Amino acid sequence: MNASDEGRLIIISGPSGAGKSTVVRQLIEQCELPLVASISATTRTPRLNERHGVDYFFLTEEEFARRRRHGDFLECKQNFGLQNWYGTLKEQVAAGLNAGKWLILEIDVEGAMEVLRHREFDPITIFIHPGGLDELERRLRLRGTETAESIAARLETAAVEMSYLTRYRYEVINDTVPAAVDEICQILQQAKELNECSKS
């Protein structure tokens, strides 16, 4: 495999309401790199039309626990509200990278820090936010779907997440989705060019 064929791992994090999912979806559609979203494993029940290995890897609680014990996850955590587990399988990441894919992990800061402990993957880390907590609060209120208590809880969590900003290689302020997509695509293209130069 030559340098231009090598895959890369990309971590994208940011507070809820920062528009991460929309940015990632459009980034995959528009950027010329071979970007794909990483498929998580979960213990939750599949929803209608969800497929194993496409939307998620659906595992039983026993299988998930066994794989956790064996160290098969790059990162994993439990959703305490619903008691379901979610995680990223090392083998799935390795297979994607070996196939030359640029694999995007859209995960929270705790998951990102867990991944960074695995030195072998050297991910490109990007933190997306709307410009500050005041702007995040404005966007959450504009949604009209959140209670005052829910907004307060989200902002409290976001403040903790924002404290991890300096642990990421790149910061992207999501003023508009097209601008954020362009900026991230440029970051990734530059990383590809640097990688090719270092291997030549």
**Proper CATH architecture:** 3-Layer(aba) Sandwich
Mean pLDDT: 91
What is the count of distinct domains? 1
Instruction: Using the coordinates above, name the CATH class.
Output: Alpha Beta
Give the quaternary arrangement of the chains.
Answer: single chain
Based on CA atoms alone, the radius of gyration comes out at: 17 Å
The fold-level CATH name is Rossmann fold
Q: Helicity range of the residues?
A: 40-55%
Number of strands: 9
CATH homologous superfamily placement: P-loop containing nucleotide triphosphate hydrolases
Structural class: alpha/beta
Put simply, the count of helices is 7
Largest sheet: 5 strands, parallel
Rounded to the nearest angstrom, the distance between the terminal CA atoms is 13 Å
- Overall geometric form: globular
Unreliable segments of 5+ consecutive residues: none
How are the strands of the largest sheet arranged?
Answer: 2-7-1-8-9
Topology as a string of helices (H) and strands (E): EHEEEHEEHEHEHHEH
In terms of DSSP E residues, the strand content is: 15-25%
